[in-house]
Amino acid sequence: DAGVIQSPRHEVTEMGQEVTLRCKPISGHNSLFWYRQTMMRGLELLIYFNNNVPIDDSGMPEDRFSAKMPNASFSTLKIQPSEPRDSAVYFCASSSSYEQYFGPGTRLTVT
Amino acid sequence: GQQLNQSPQSMFIQEGEDVSMNCTSSSIFNTWLWYKQEPGEGPVLLIALYKAGELTSNGRLTAQFGITRKDSFLNISASIPSDVGIYFCAGQLAYNTDKLIFGTGTRLQVFP
To answer: Does residue B104 sit at the A interface (CB-CB below 8 Å)?
Structure first.
């Protein structure tokens, strides 16, 4: 069974550039979550979707962050423009109940 | 926002020892989940608990949903080197949301 797929696994970019992170949830799961993990702040929920509709985006840091889910099998998290403080590991997770399954993450470094 | 207090923050134990960690909150949770995260990977679900008082095992792992619904513990028996990682508890506050609140994690180091 394919789990949650994220790409890229690593991204290094310069400050001011646009960054797009991608996620393919587990087939049949109707909820999708984007998290950010740092040493200082731990695991933070940024936004989650249910049936492709954004339900709670209260964790999105600011207008530079946006997320879309155009269909049940694909979601993107975009940062424009990126800043060094955005450096973190970004996880996507999906669920069909209360059990969330995480992808391997994208390690983002903004220089 | 809501927080889960997880303890201890870190543990350094010898192979073969038993491990216990717990999460507490001032709020009532409907579901408790325990995850393990290894370096460079995403958290992996270990155990899910749905009822107050529920005790569930998964191999050498045992977890319980506290009777007050405000806490949960995870025990690992006879630890082995591959148990190394960060263990997170997570709780679901309300039935009408899929959102989980995560604990701060317990970093486990096992020495042979």
So the answer is: yes
